[in-house]
C-alpha cells in the first residue's frame, strides 16, 4: 500500500491521493480499516470536493457487530448469519463491507462489499479451518467516511465435511490478483458492444466474441456438471475452476461457496471483454511492459512466476490494454505486448492440480493438506495446451506456414495462439467514424473445436444469448476442425488380402486433440467395400443412435485418460485405474494425442506432457507430428474410406456426470441436453478414399462386348495360387492376344504376346515371375488379357 493510503496516527484519512489518481478519493475497497472510527477533517473534505470551507467536522457512522461475537463454531461451506447495527447521525449509511481473518496475525480478507444496510447477511463460510476467526464489518456513509467493528473474541471454523480427500480452500490458494482486488465489478460485455459492435459482424469484436465459448464459459452446462463432481470429491476445488470460467464472479467474491451456487446472471458473462483487456503481464519487462504494470504488481501479496492455472493479474483501475496504440479511445488505454503473446493465453489454458506435487518422472504425490503448494511448476498437469505450443516450432520467430489459419498474416505464417484463434482481418476496431481501417484487426472469435456445447447454451439461455452469433461460432469451430489435420490412406498387398496404412498429420500448434481431456476424443474410422458397394470391414464403428464407439482390436482413438494410482486409491477408498474423477486423478494412463511440429520428448517431459501408451516405451519419436496406423482389409476389398472424427463429449463421460452426481441436478440437465442434441454427434474432420483397383487398369468386361469383341468365357485359377496361375478364355475368331501383369502400385511387371490365336478355347499360364524372370513374390496382382478390341481384368492373389 502506498504511503498516502496508510492509516494515520490521528485516525484521520490522508488528503493526498496515489499518483495518477483523478477520482475524488481512494475507492472504498482500498481504504484502510481499523477498529476505531476515522474522521475526515473539514480541510480534507474541502480538498476532496466533499464539503466547502467553513463546514463543521463530519461525523462518521456508528457500527456494532452483533454476530459473530466470539465462541461460535461454524462449518466451512455452510451459511452463517452475520448481523450488525449501523447508523449515521448526519448522513446515510450507503454501503456495508464484511471482512474476515483466520488468525490473529493474519490480514483481513474481504468477503463481500456493496451490501445495503439491512443488518444481516448470510455468509457462505470459507473452508479455512481455524480456531482464531474474526469478522469485521465496515459501514461507509455518503461522505465516504467509515467505521468498523470486529468480533469481540475469536470463533471457530470447522472443515467442510465430505469428499474423498479432505481438502480446504488453502489447498487451492494461488498467487495473482485476489477477490476484491479491483475497486468495482468488471464491466458487462454488452457495455463494450455499444462501441465495438453493430457494424462489421464478420470482423467486429462483439459479434464474433458473442459466438465464442469464452463468452459462454460460465453458461456451459458441461462446466457446471464437472464442477459438482469436483466439489463432491475434493471440497473447495471448485474455486480453482470458477477462477477461469467466470473471472468477474471470482473477483467479486462469488466463488464462495465454491460450488458456484451464488454466481449471478452477470457472472455468466464468462471470460468478459473487460477482464482480458485489464490483464497485466506478471513478468514485468523494463522498457517493454507498460510502466503502469509495475504499480499494479507492487500491490500484490504474491506475484505469479508462470502463466497457468488462473494466476491472473488484473489492473484495479480503469486502464484497458490491447495490442494497438489507440490514443483516441473513449476509455483509458495502454498498448500492451502481453496481449499479442501466447503467454497471456497460458493463464487459463495450462491447468494444474495444486493438491499434487511431482516427486519423480511421471509420479505425483498429494501435498500436505490445508496448505498451499510450494511450487506450482511441479503441480500435477491437467491441461497443457499452452505448454504444448510453447515447446513447438510454432513458438519461433518465423512460426509455421499455415495459411488456412493465418488470416491476413504476411506470408501465411502463424506463431502465437492469437495468430490462429484471433486471426487478423481487415476492419475497424470500433464503430467510430474516426477508427482507422487496419489490416490486422484480431477477430475475437477465440474459436476452438467445440460445435456441440454452444447448442446447449442456446437451449438453456434463449433470451440471454445471441443465436446468430452462436451459430456463426459453430461454423467457425467446424472450419477449425476441418483444417486441424491431414489424412492419407495407402493400400498395399498383404499376402492374399490388403493392408491400409492411415496417416494423420497434426496441423495445429498443440497436441491433437488438446485441452480438457475428460470425454474429449478423436478417432479413425476405416470402412472397406467390395465391388458391389457392400461394406465388408469397419474399424472404430460408431452408432449414432446409442453414441457407442466400438473399439475393435485395430481401433485408433486419440485421447488422454487420467486415473488414480494404486497407492492413492487405497488411501482414499477408490478403485485404481482410469477415472473421470478429475480432481482425484494423480496419474496419466494414456495420452496418445498427436504432438505438434517441433515436439521432443525431453521438452515435453519438463511440463508433464510426455505421450503415454501402455506397452510402448516412446509413443512418438522426437520430431514426429503425425501418426500412422495399419488396418488389415479383406481380399474382396474394392475401395476403402478412412475418416477422422472428433467428439466433444463421449457417452461414457455424459453418463458419469449424471450418475455420479449426488449434489444437484447439473448432471441430469447436461445428460438430457446431450441426448436431445444428438449425443455430441462426432464431427468429420477429414477423409480419404482409395480404390484398390490399380489406376489405369480398367475392367470393361461385359456380357456383350463392343463391336469386334473376340474374348469369351474368361476365368482364372486356382485362387489363391502358389506356383502357376491358369488364365482360361475362348475366342470367337482368330485374333492376337496380349497378357499383362501389374503389381498393386500399377506397375507392369510382366507382359506376354500371342501373335495369333485361333478360334476356340485357350489357356495362358503365369508362373509368378517378372519380366526378368525373377520371382514376383506373394501378394495381390492384376491381370489384363487383351484380345482384339476387348480386354478383361482380374485380381489374383499369390501365396508362398
Automatic annotation (TrEMBL):
InterPro entries: Ig-like_fold, Multihaem_cyt_sf. Residues 1-31 are annotated as: Disordered. Residues 1-14 have a biased composition (Polar residues). This is Cytochrome c-552/4 domain-containing protein. It comes from Eiseniibacteriota bacterium.
